[in-house]
């Protein structure tokens, strides 16, 4: 999803090569402490998921998903953002049931908000390996959740958050259901409502918006902030200098396939710099700028400029999002192929 900014071995390096490594250890330790403190609240509302759900039925699931995902990310640094978005777009429509992967007519992936979503080939590759190791055991929905985590974690060479598993796959995928996806043009109230409809709160909105620290946006999602008709009309919530940078990537009119980095500072590095840019009116999307227009959200933005707080908050909200309307137990199915429902 970005240029590779981690040094060899996956560690961030300071001038002497040692400070950043020690800093990351500190993040892991403190982040783990923060997560453990809040974990009990999560588990009280557990919808049937579990850590190490496949411990007996497919003990190699974690290593297989990580191995395939990391190999693919090493070859294509755009994948962390794509897989993270794929998981997000799945969970916000009928819950985390892998319905976005289905190829039937008028499926979710044919809807306008999903036409730029990618990473399907990685899920296919992982599923193929898992079907060899543990036929009919691991759901596509769980693969999505694990692959998103592992893709983002590649730069650290260590898992950034734990993933609960035990999801089963849905059998319905309709483009008409994608209206629940948050819009890149949404104001604060609209965003908060979209998240609330999925059982997510203000903290989750601000933390998960941090996913925009990586990846790209289509110019069509940005140009309404830059132009009005044939004339320049810059959104007053957008820093004027950054607006010029966006215009250079997204002229008027822009080619249909044109894109611009979501994070103008470090668009290929998963970090907390996104929040500093939101504070500086340099959020790429209108939905980014919206976070600074509410006092409570703006305070959270300020807090999450601290990388330790960001990683902890993002981890908690990812786990919470991963529970949205999941199918467990005997509901749904375990698809043999992620792009189609089982026929028998």
Automatic annotation (TrEMBL):
<keyword id="KW-0106">Calcium</keyword>
<feature type="domain" description="Plant heme peroxidase family profile">
    <location>
        <begin position="48"/>
        <end position="342"/>
    </location>
</feature>
<comment type="similarity">
    <text>Belongs to the peroxidase family. Ascorbate peroxidase subfamily.</text>
</comment>
<feature type="binding site">
    <location>
        <position position="97"/>
    </location>
    <ligand>
        <name>Ca(2+) 1</name>
    </ligand>
</feature>
<dbReference type="GO" id="GO:0005576">
    <property type="term" value="C:extracellular region"/>
</dbReference>
<feature type="transmembrane region" description="Helical">
    <location>
        <begin position="21"/>
        <end position="42"/>
    </location>
</feature>
<feature type="binding site">
    <location>
        <position position="108"/>
    </location>
    <ligand>
        <name>Ca(2+) 1</name>
    </ligand>
</feature>
<feature type="binding site">
    <location>
        <position position="90"/>
    </location>
    <ligand>
        <name>Ca(2+) 1</name>
    </ligand>
</feature>
<keyword id="KW-0349">Heme</keyword>
<keyword id="KW-0560">Oxidoreductase</keyword>
<keyword id="KW-0964">Secreted</keyword>
<comment type="function">
    <text>Removal of H(2)O(2), oxidation of toxic reductants, biosynthesis and degradation of lignin, suberization, auxin catabolism, response to environmental stresses such as wounding, pathogen attack and oxidative stress. These functions might be dependent on each isozyme/isoform in each plant tissue.</text>
</comment>
<dbReference type="Pfam" id="PF00141">
    <property type="entry name" value="peroxidase"/>
</dbReference>
<feature type="binding site">
    <location>
        <position position="99"/>
    </location>
    <ligand>
        <name>Ca(2+) 1</name>
    </ligand>
</feature>
<keyword id="KW-0479">Metal-binding</keyword>
<feature type="binding site">
    <location>
        <position position="271"/>
    </location>
    <ligand>
        <name>Ca(2+) 2</name>
    </ligand>
</feature>
<keyword id="KW-0472">Membrane</keyword>
<feature type="binding site">
    <location>
        <position position="263"/>
    </location>
    <ligand>
        <name>Ca(2+) 2</name>
    </ligand>
</feature>
<dbReference type="GO" id="GO:0009505">
    <property type="term" value="C:plant-type cell wall"/>
</dbReference>
<dbReference type="GO" id="GO:0006979">
    <property type="term" value="P:response to oxidative stress"/>
</dbReference>
<feature type="binding site">
    <location>
        <position position="182"/>
    </location>
    <ligand>
        <name>substrate</name>
    </ligand>
</feature>
<dbReference type="GO" id="GO:0020037">
    <property type="term" value="F:heme binding"/>
</dbReference>
<keyword id="KW-0575">Peroxidase</keyword>
<dbReference type="GO" id="GO:0140825">
    <property type="term" value="F:lactoperoxidase activity"/>
</dbReference>
<dbReference type="InterPro" id="IPR010255">
    <property type="entry name" value="Haem_peroxidase_sf"/>
</dbReference>
<feature type="active site" description="Proton acceptor">
    <location>
        <position position="89"/>
    </location>
</feature>
<keyword id="KW-0812">Transmembrane</keyword>
<feature type="disulfide bond">
    <location>
        <begin position="140"/>
        <end position="338"/>
    </location>
</feature>
<keyword id="KW-0732">Signal</keyword>
<dbReference type="InterPro" id="IPR002016">
    <property type="entry name" value="Haem_peroxidase"/>
</dbReference>
<dbReference type="InterPro" id="IPR033905">
    <property type="entry name" value="Secretory_peroxidase"/>
</dbReference>
<keyword id="KW-0376">Hydrogen peroxide</keyword>
<feature type="binding site">
    <location>
        <position position="95"/>
    </location>
    <ligand>
        <name>Ca(2+) 1</name>
    </ligand>
</feature>
<feature type="binding site" description="axial binding residue">
    <location>
        <position position="212"/>
    </location>
    <ligand>
        <name>heme b</name>
    </ligand>
</feature>
<keyword id="KW-1015">Disulfide bond</keyword>
<dbReference type="GO" id="GO:0046872">
    <property type="term" value="F:metal ion binding"/>
</dbReference>
<protein>
    <recommendedName>
        <fullName>Peroxidase</fullName>
        <ecNumber>1.11.1.7</ecNumber>
    </recommendedName>
</protein>
<keyword id="KW-0873">Pyrrolidone carboxylic acid</keyword>
<comment type="similarity">
    <text>Belongs to the peroxidase family. Classical plant (class III) peroxidase subfamily.</text>
</comment>
<feature type="disulfide bond">
    <location>
        <begin position="219"/>
        <end position="250"/>
    </location>
</feature>
<dbReference type="InterPro" id="IPR000823">
    <property type="entry name" value="Peroxidase_pln"/>
</dbReference>
<dbReference type="GO" id="GO:0004601">
    <property type="term" value="F:peroxidase activity"/>
</dbReference>
